[in-house]
Specification:
The structure is a homodimer of 244-residue chains. The first copy, chain A, is α+β, with helices and mostly antiparallel strands and 244 residues long. Chain A has 7 helices and 11 strands. Helix content of chain A is 26%, strand content 37%. In chain A, a hairpin with a 4-residue loop joins strand 9 and strand 10. In chain A, helix 2 packs across helix 3. The longest helix of chain A is centred in the N-terminal third of the chain and has 15 residues. Chain A binds a DNA duplex (19 and 19 nucleotides) through helix 3.
Chain lengths: 244, 244
DNA sequence: GAGTGGTCTAGACCACGAG
DNA sequence: TCGTGGTCTAGACCACTCA
């Protein structure tokens, strides 16, 4: 038994979610009810509830209640260095894709290594599982690279369509740098992913360059930090084996 | 100006840390003083302070005070798929290394693919920057793989010494799988890294296998989520270039 | 309007660390 | 012992959502 009240309450609620006393999508008892049930003050109850939100177990909705999140299972973003293949697997996600063009601002200009104000294609992908948002991805392609006709019905939540379309459009992809970081969400992400401001996100940023060193694609994927991972598989090159 | 009190206070403290009104290592005014200074209640002050802790800006010490953390700058864990090289760069870190042997429990047994109870060498690396902890790494090597004589003075905070020693010991490294996830810290990590239970960590797990498919090394690196990243560089294989 | 969560207050008592 | 942060309480008022 936990020594602290809020930890004990969080544990109890967690257990009840785990064993199914509170089912996915259903509303938790209101905080007023929980206060009575646990004989605790509002502050203590909320401390427990916020903890569960940060763990990705519940979604808090102002004016509505606290709801049990549908568990997606582990979402994996795969990179196979041996085959230069990328894939994201996990639960069956519903993907919404959209497309627009923007003028490069300072940040985009620097990252894509293009002049300020250049036209950039932006593909946005949002994935959901049982109406709960799961991922947010944006793919940026300078319009000087390719005028793509990518089907924005997007099956991949991480915008792999665009990369494939680039290869099909005879863009000569040479190297990819993938950056992974963990951070707290900005307001937009907190809203779009329905996560609390204390729930960390996993950010995956992928920059692909062609054989001339020109950036052809910048992808930024944001996933809730809980229940997600990125996996890289690589093979030791022959020369290292020789050395041994 | 923020609409919420605690957000406004957090912003103000953040700004004062940024401009150097509160210098790294120094103590913030006590919460009682902050209450007076901002005319806010303890709850509100603490909400702001906890936020700063989760952002990695301060360290809270029970009975002592809240201290400004020494900024390490971005800590990068690099993996170069083209050279199978790994490196961790960032501020100059002080590294403590230690070594022990343990019997494999269920988890280790499964991950290392060895019998339960087998002897495993465990190398632990802790890095600090200006006395503030920065990283925690453990390297597990089954004793059937190699009886290493690794200098535990370890220069690399991510246990690269062990991997190099394996290659030198004629272990034929074939493939490496790296898993990266973001999660909340367990109690030990929270204590060792001096981070709050709400501060996310970046976990990097690396499993190296030899040409027989045997696991020769399991490394688990835990970094605070703020100010850290993992970067992978890969080159598109020739065949993909042909296809284009 | 009724019920829900979001924010804030004022105050209490406990636990930790240093002199 | 004293000053610090850690936890908790009881209560207030606001903001959002829906019937």
């Amino acid at each position: 038994m936990a020594q602290n009240r809020h930890i004990h309450i969080a544990e109890d609620l967690r257990r009840q979610i785990a064993v199914g006393s509170f089912t996915p999508g259903s509303r938790l008892p209101s905080e007023a009810v929980l206060m009575e049930r646990y004989g605790a003050s509002r502050t203590t109850i909320r401390e427990a509830v916020v903890k569960l939100e940060n763990e990705g177990l519940i979604i808090r909705r102002h004016g509505l209640g606290n709801f049990v999140r549908h568990a997606t299972g582990l979402i994996t973003y795969n990179i196979d260095g041996r085959r230069a293949a990328r894939s994201a697997v996990g639960a069956t996600l519903e993907v919404q894709a959209s497309h627009e063009t923007v003028q490069a601002d300072a940040g985009l200009s620097e990252r894509l290594n293009i002049p300020l104000g250049s036209t950039v294609s932006v593909y946005t992908y949002k994935s959901h599982y049982m109406h709960d948002p799961c991922s947010l991805a944006r793919v940026y392609v300078p319009q000087t690279v390719a005028l793509l006709d990518v089907p924005v019905t997007g099956l991949s939540p991480t915008g792999e369509d665009v990369r494939e379309a680039l290869v099909k459009a005879h863009v000569r992809v040479a190297a990819t740098v993938t950056r992974i970081a963990s951070r707290l969400p900005v307001a937009e992400e907190s809203r779009e992913l329905r996560i609390g401001s204390g729930t960390a996100v996993l950010e995956i940023e992928r920059i692909t360059t062609d054989i001339d060193g020109q950036v052809v694609e910048l992808t930024r994927i944001v996933l809730p930090g809980y229940g997600t991972e990125a996996v890289f598989t690589e093979q030791a090159p022959a020369r290292e084996l020789e050395a041994a």
